[in-house]
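Next up, sample data.

:::
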Amino acid sequence: MCHRLSITAAPLLLPNPLRPVISFPDRFVAMDVITLGYAVPMIVFNGPARAAINARFGFTALTAPPGVRSANFTQARAETISSKPAWTTHLTYRRGLVAVHAVTERDDACNLYRYESADGSALLLPTLYRRANGVTEFVLISTDTPEAFAARHPRIPVALDADAALTWLDLRNPPHVVQALLSAARPIYRDASAASAVPNAA
């Protein structure tokens, strides 16, 4: 599974509680796909308000030599996030949200599939983040792929509606509350693969 976060130069349509709209740096204007190691604005809880900070996709292996990036983690499983020691502290104190236009996935045959929100608004993807070697890094929360797409790839990022996103961001909500929120999340993706599919690499 290799999630790619897709953005464009167009403003993201965010729900009212999450506005103002996040603007992307100029270097993203010609870049459609964000992969491991790229930084994107991430919404975090800051007291009663919400703020945007730049965060890089993927947790880097802390034992990697200086200057060498080796991402050990890109996802935490929604089903077990509150019971895994690797994630419990992040779940309590370091929850974020990345808003993107689409998520793309490749199957085993290297076909590319693109998923957008059903209503055309931004996809609100919950994240866990940390500071490592002076850099803020994040991982996505994954869940089982909806049945309609399951034959392509087994996992897909959790996407939240606006109310659930606000609950996720609010660190006053304890881990068992947000764990239940993730478990109750329903797929809100629509298949937008027609323009993105590529021929089988074979």
